[in-house]
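Here is the promised in-class demo. Please do not try to memorize the tokens; focus on the logic of going from shape to residues.
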């Protein structure tokens, strides 16, 4: 089968499309023909070995696991022994986590891991990124921010894969939403339901008079210290992009002041903690509160171009690999 690998850290062209043996499903696993996969900012950072401390987990000098990709959607074509809840022909989506391998024609995954049925009416392409941006957003909005109706949240990077979903989900939770984006994305972010827009090319949200209950920096471009004046007393600065600076801010804010800096690695959470968030996410999709945004589509043989596009930092919503 065709699969994407990388043997060293570096720019987009270190990724390769190669022939590898098809995986054999074990008892308790389902075998999926992948129809779509998402190329995420996290994939780009993993490929580059950034931040460098992340190589403690990925491999110091070169990647220990050469397979790439974590987000997938496809069709079950074989069911292993002892599997319940799935059958051949089911349309499913999920994530492979640190096992990677989602940028391939086929994958095997444990049926009790992060895999679920695709919601009715949703395409493979729309379902593939659900366990990336939207699930991360649910964790941050629910568990870290404890976002309540009527609260005011600022979402930095509101046009990206996390941001575009976060705007919609925060609105569905009853919050007042301010989206921060570039000039070209102002109308797009407004169409997602944002109540207010800040064009970061023209304005700096940290220097305005408005204050927020929550600042959700989906892209890690701001920092807690400079954002504190824009937080209400008891407010939270949350970001999925961990850095030494954010880690230090978290430790400091745990002891001092009412404003807190918070981080969570959603994909590293135990499955039994992620699945309730996923169920709520699917409920909100069924209620029409979230529409997935697809920016560009690439074929599996265009994986280098897909990574190069993600590297620009200007994707709007999700970048999808069309597989099979």
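The designed amino acids, position by position:
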């Amino acid at each position: 089968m065709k699969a994407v690998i990388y043997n060293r850290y570096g720019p987009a062209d270190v990724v390769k499309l190669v022939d590898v043996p098809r995986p054999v499903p074990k008892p308790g696993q389902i075998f999926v023909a992948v129809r779509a996969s998402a190329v995420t900012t996290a994939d780009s950072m993993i490929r580059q070995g950034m931040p460098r401390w992340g190589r403690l987990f990925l491999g110091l000098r070169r990647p220990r696991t050469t397979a790439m990709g974590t987000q997938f959607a496809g069709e079950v074509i074989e069911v292993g022994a002892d599997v319940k809840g799935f059958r051949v022909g089911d349309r499913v989506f999920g994530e492979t986590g640190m096992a990677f391998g989602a940028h391939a024609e086929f994958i095997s995954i444990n049926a009790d891991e992060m895999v679920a049925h695709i919601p009715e009416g949703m395409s493979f392409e729309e379902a593939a990124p659900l366990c990336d941006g939207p699930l991360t957003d649910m964790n941050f909005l629910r568990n870290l921010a404890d976002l309540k109706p009527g609260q005011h949240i600022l979402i930095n990077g509101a046009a990206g894969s996390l941001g575009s979903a976060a705007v919609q989900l925060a609105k569905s939770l009853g919050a007042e939403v301010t989206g921060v984006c570039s000039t070209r994305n102002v109308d797009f972010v407004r169409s997602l339901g944002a109540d207010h827009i800040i064009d970061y090319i023209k304005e700096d949200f940290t220097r305005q008079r408005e204050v927020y209950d929550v600042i959700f920096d989906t892209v890690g471009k701001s920092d807690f210290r400079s954002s504190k004046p824009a937080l209400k007393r008891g407010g939270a600065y949350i970001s999925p992009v961990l850095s030494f600076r954010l880690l230090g801010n978290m430790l400091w804010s745990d002891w001092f002041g009412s404003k807190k800096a918070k981080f969570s690695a959603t994909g590293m959470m135990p499955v039994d903690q992620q699945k309730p968030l996923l169920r709520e996410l699917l409920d909100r999709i069924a209620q029409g509160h979230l529409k997935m945004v697809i920016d560009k589509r690439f074929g599996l043989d265009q994986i280098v171009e897909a990574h190069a596009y993600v590297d620009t930092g200007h994707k709007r919503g999700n970048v999808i690999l069309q597989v099979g």
